[in-house]
Write a structure and sequence with these properties.
Low-confidence stretches: 1-24, 27-40
Number of domains: 3
Number of helices: 12
CATH architecture of the largest domain: Distorted Sandwich
Shape: globular
Structural class: alpha+beta
Mean pLDDT: 94
CATH class of the largest domain: Mainly Beta
Length: 701
């Protein structure tokens, strides 16, 4: 085995890396032992986080690469396997031993064109290690941050290796003291993609789950396993083998293979976010930092903002996507929404159902959609001109019903049409049961794929990059999960990827009071979500109806701050906002682009409090906003206001639950009040059952 050496390695970062210190990286050599092939020396490499609280050990003690993770000196991930299995080459794991390693130290920051904070600090210690069996080799790249770790595999070009098919990934996460851990999860590989209510169970009771997968150890340490930079690879789900041992389970192609690639590839980063408490997970930038910088160049054309939509009426069955007497997407109706948007400061109006194909069983036959032909009662040129005159953009919509080959064939022409009429944002939809995405292969044979398999990973990204050529941003519904690619492709402005507001109109059961308080610590760790908050008619069919919104009205306001997205929808019908103009004022005021964001308090599934500082806007970044939401339990929370600028006074415009508020019986009981405060003050928030508080801190001096 060659001797251990340290050499600088090129990193894709804004600042040149430094040699890592001996405190951050340690090489431990065990005593040599005799095998049939001679003397073998096992190695253990140790990488510490910059604050020295997280430690990752990489070893080949068992004649294969394994890793473990310690936090505050205590194991949180026990020895866990690493490696890949190829169809033609077998396992890259057993008998692969540690070779040459290269260390780096990074301390830099980078700017987001839009986001939940303007500047992101990238501070980590890195290690790239070659693993070899004498014939083939691959690399494990490791980055250890103060908020967690990321690692990935790289298989370089070597010898005659060309096409490679991955049949299994061997990556494990062996959770320390798993029998005493609590987990929040949704099932993977199910018919409803990611759109499930979250389960809270002992960790040992999970089977196959989606990521981000969040859990809490008995000692209070919070962790979340996910992945970053998912490109040209299958999504990783987690399959529990023995209790507490989670294996990476890649979503397969229709032919059973997991990944089809070539030598010279890298996997996505496998990530573990680590924090002393629940809010520590919310304040992490780990996923973004593991993605590559912006590849699109100037993206000033990507515009955050709020929008209305011809959407909620369809879910309430007041309108239809298809043509007929109740057709929602008409010229007249779109103009009415544009008038309301212009009068109330909204940037756009989403219109669903404008294109032919919605009549009949579109859900089961996406081949019928045309993405360029309008229904006769929808005049695209007239509407585009009307919106431009009003200062309100038309937001486009493409529903594929999972027939991606039909969409791919029309995509360029469809995006060209939108570009011609000034449509700069498009919501795409892939409604189909999990595993029923329809593609036609090169031989004309129909294949059915998963939403999160490699084929669809590439299809989603293809739509984003094609849209970028026309300065169009994409908001993907029924998507692949977010893995931070908004950093690399900033026009991927938002996505769904969880159970959204529409389930409250017709889902049985609807979203429960703990749904959004769980989303904050699970789905939202991945990135922005187009949840579509802001419903004011909380029980259209009465308080006793099964299908209704299980929140108070002020919780709907607070969601604009808690569930981050650079595009936020005022989801209800215009007439319902007219009933509560004083509360609607918060939706008019709240921005969608932030200078910084701070999670102040919370527990997974129970409650969360976020404070965010406006970026630019009318206040030039002086105003702050706060959102607090709770589950079914009413609670009182005291919040320090030390996040505000010192020596400055603010008018706190408070939208809170009334004294008798309760989502079941008094959801519309709310109070709006103001008081002058500063950074030295505290506020006591009183949240009703499934209630919330929304506050604008308006700078006075």
């Amino acid at each position: 085995m060659p001797p251990f050496t340290k050499k600088p390695v090129k990193q894709d970062i804004a600042q040149s890396p430094k040699r890592i210190s001996s405190l951050a990286l340690t090489l431990l050599l065990s005593i040599g032992f005799i095998t049939s092939s001679g003397i073998v020396t096992a190695k253990t490499l140790v990488v510490n986080s910059p604050n020295k609280q997280i430690q990752l050990e990489l070893t080949d003690d068992n004649q294969r690469p394994e890793y473990r993770v310690l936090f505050h000196g205590q194991p949180i991930i026990n020895s866990s396997k690493l490696g890949l299995v190829f169809q033609s080459l077998g396992e890259f794991g057993a008998e692969f031993l540690i070779g040459d390693s290269h260390a780096t130290e990074v301390n830099s920051k980078w700017q987001q064109p839009w986001g939940d904070r303007e500047w992101v600090i990238d501070k980590h210690h890195g290690l790239s290690t070659q693993l070899s069996n004498g014939k083939y080799h691959f690399y494990v790249d490791i980055k250890v941050f103060d908020d967690g770790i990321g690692f990935r595999y790289r298989v370089p070009k070597q010898g005659v290796l060309e096409a490679l098919n991955i049949t299994q990934e061997l990556t494990e996460f062996s959770i320390a003291q798993a029998n005493k851990a609590t987990a929040w999860w949704i099932p993977a590989r199910g018919w409803n993609r990611y759109e499930y209510l979250y389960n809270k169970t002992p960790l040992t009771e999970i089977d196959r789950v989606h990521t981000p997968f969040t859990f809490k150890l008995e000692n209070g340490v919070h962790m979340s396993i996910h992945e970053a930079a998912l490109v040209d690879y299958a999504a990783m789900t987690l399959d529990q083998r023995r209790d507490g041992i989670l294996r990476a389970d890649l979503t397969p192609w229709s032919d059973g293979l997991k990944v089809k690639t070539h030598a010279g590839f890298s996997t996505p980063w496998r990530t573990i976010q680590i924090a002393d408490n629940a809010t520590g997970l919310l304040n992490s930038d780990l996923i973004l930092n593991l993605n590559e910088p912006n590849k699109l160049g100037d993206v000033t054309w990507v515009e955050p903002g709020k929008y209305m939509g011809i959407w909620w009426g369809m879910h309430l069955n007041e309108n239809t996507w298809g043509s007929g007497d109740k057709h929602g997407a008409t010229t007249k109706e779109t103009k009415r929404y544009m008038d309301f948007a212009a009068d109330n400061g909204f940037a756009g109006v989403l219109v669903e159902g404008w294109n032919t194909g919605w009549d009949g069983s579109w859900f089961h036959n996406g081949d019928v959609f045309s993405f360029t032909e309008t229904y006769p009662d929808f005049d695209l040129p007239e509407i585009a001109a009307y919106g431009a005159n009003k200062g309100v953009r038309l937001i486009g919509h493409h529903e594929t019903s999972g027939s991606v080959t039909n969409y791919r064939k029309q995509m360029n022409e469809a995006y060209d049409l939108y570009e011609k009429y000034g449509v700069t944002q498009v919501k795409t939809g892939y409604v189909a049961d999990g595993g029923d995405i329809k593609r036609v292969d090169d031989n004309g044979i129909i294949r059915h794929e998963w939403h999160d398999g490699q084929f669809m990973v590439n299809e989603y990204l293809h739509s984003v990059t094609e849209a970028a050529k026309r300065h169009i941003s994409i908001n993907t519904h029924e998507p692949i999960k977010d893995t931070g690619l908004r950093r690399t492709y900033p026009n991927w402005i938002s996505r769904e990827g969880a159970r959204g507001q529409e389930f409250n109109a017709w889902g049985t059961p609807p979203n429960n009071p703990s749904h959004t308080t769980t989303l904050a610590y699970t789905r939202m760790l991945a990135g922005p979500m187009d949840f579509t908050p802001g419903i004011f008619d909380l029980a259209p069919k009465g308080l006793d109806a099964v299908n209704r919104v299980q929140t108070t009205l002020t919780k709907q306001l607070a969601l604009y701050v808690v569930l981050y997205s650079p595009i936020q929808m005022a989801a209800d019908l215009p007439r319902n906002y007219a009933k509560h103009p004083d509360a609607f004022k918060f939706i008019q005021d709240v921005p969608t682009d932030w200078q910084q964001s701070i999670a102040l308090a919370g527990e997974v599934g129970e409650y969360v409090v976020f404070a965010r500082q406006e970026r630019g806007g009318k206040s030039n970044g002086s105003d702050w906003y706060l959102g607090a939401i709770t589950d079914d339990n009413a609670r009182i929370i005291e919040i320090d206001l030390d996040f505000l600028e010192p020596n400055k006074r603010y008018e706190a415009q408070i939208y809170r639950d009334g004294d008798k508020a309760n989502w079941r019986t008094k959801p519309y009981d709310y109070v709006i009040e103001t008081q002058v405060i500063n950074a030295k003050d505290k506020l006591t928030l009183s949240l009703a059952s499934s209630g919330g508080t929304a506050i604008r801190f308006k700078a006075l001096d």
